[in-house]
Amino acid sequence: MENIIIEAINNFGYLGVVLLIAIENIFPPIPSEVILTFGGFATTISNITVIGTIIAATIGSVIGAIALYYIGRILNEERIDKIAESKVGKILGLSKEDIHKAFSWFDSKGKYAVFFGRFIPIVRSLVSIPAGMAKMAIIPFLALTTVGSLIWNTVLVTLGRIAGASWNRIAEYVGGYSDIVLVAFIIIFILGIIAFYLKKSGMVKVVNFRKNNKKQSNGE
Questions:
Q1: pTM (2 d.p.)
Q2: 88-123 burial, b if ≥16 CB within 10 A, otherwise e?
């Protein structure tokens, strides 16, 4: 993977950076830290500049984010409601109420998620999908995505420039950070699912208990 990234930047310069970052946003497993830190190093041995590389990376980030945003628009609230009503949704324990709560949360906190999510590996790509699903206004989405991506790209390209031939060490450090964050999110996700089902099962028990008490009080 690293060899492909290096060859693309060496052969295509800014265009290579744009394409690689756009693809990285759509397919998160592709390591942005390698693309950006090598891009920073490339500014020391070629005609591309730090500013040009940052701009190219930011354009690529926005292109990838827009693609995922419109995928989210296709998977809108109405379609998710239908999934909740389907057999699969029932097996998963989904309900319209839960879905509407999630969309309401994104309506109020979505701007923070879109901006700060750009600094978190994996999340920086996937956060565009719920933004589209919640029908977040495109202008704020683009503005927050651009600023957040610009900061992330600036940091990594600059670090790659400073590290020079040792750029891969920076990529390794950031890659380690990415792995830690990914594991943390998996754990949080699993705990969230467990808490969700425990809460739902507890609610079912409370409802049944109240129904039984009501029947007893009515002499049934």
A1: 0.69
A2: ebeeeebeeeebeeebeebeeebbebbbebbebbeb
